[in-house]
Structures are given as structure tokens and as C-alpha cells.
Write a structure and sequence with these properties.
two-stranded antiparallel sheet, alpha+beta
Amino acid sequence: MKRKILASMIVFLLLATTATALTLEGSCDIRFFGQSTLHGFDGKVACQPFTLSSEGETEKTGIIRQPVVRVLVAEMDTDNSARDKKMHAMFEQQKYPQIQGLFADLDPGLILQQLQAVETAPGHLEFDLQIREISQRVQALTRDLEVTPEQISFAMEFTLSLASVGLQPPSVLGFIKVDDQVQVKARVLLRRQ
């Protein structure tokens, strides 16, 4: 039953937008989780608002050209000012004020079909994560798809090795160290315009 409802909503969305190209206003709330020698910690940051617009006459023939999602390092917050200061220094926030998610061209119709096909199992979304001058290919798990005529939302998650993007985990007094692995979870919201 759930699959039929989702399929009906996706068909409705595709039919409702066949006369014009697709434009989506995007936002995301990101949480990150890490461990240190003493305890675990978590933080949060919102990505900068972004717009996805397809090129082409219709949503079915349009392509969204290489979207970029940005996060400001200065807005990353773990609710501990001393830890935040070390984290911002690790990212060299003054020289590199943002982290970017760089996507290849996206086909909206194909993505909706893929999301429908993985309704009950996690899907995947690939992008390049650029931190400072280093880019790393990330394959995020996607789940919890919610589609209405007004918006699309989903969750995504991946694990990041700080060393893999050239970051030295912060330490306190030389013996309290942050682990290399950080879990990243995001809730993405795309509103139709």
C-alpha cells in the first residue's frame, strides 16, 4: 500500500511539472558525531540555502547542472567554545571558510525513479566533499524519503576520515585526542518553486 501511495505521488509530481523546468529551494540540517579519548561529542551546522534549477523545457528533459552545497566552518557548533575554536583552527577557517559538496549533473526524473525503487531500503547519493584544497568522493546512504506535491525530503549519512582529507584531529594537552572517524548525518529539504 505504501509503495502504491509513493508511486502515485511521484507520478503526480512528474505530471504536475511537465510544462515547466524544475526549480527547488534547498536547505539541510547537519549533525556530526565523533569520539575522543575521554568521551563522545556531537555538533551541528546548517548548510547555506541553495537553489536547484533544471535546464531544459520540462522536468523530464531537464538536467540540474553541477549543484554545489556549502557549509560555513565558522557556523559549526559543538556547544563547547574551546572545542569549537580548535575545530575551526583544524579546518583553517580563516583561509578556507567553507566546506563544499560538489555534485555531478543530476537528472530529476531519473533521481525520482531511483528513490521510488529504494523506498524501503537505503539508496546512495555520490558527491565530492571538498575540505580546504582536498576533494574526496563520498557515497552517502539515503533513507526516509518523504514526497509531497510541495516538497521532497530525505536523510543522508556517511563516515568521514579526517586524515583522508588532510586534517589533523585536535588534541588537548597532547593526550586527549579526537578520533579520526566522524559520522555525518543530514536531513535535506527541497521545496518546489
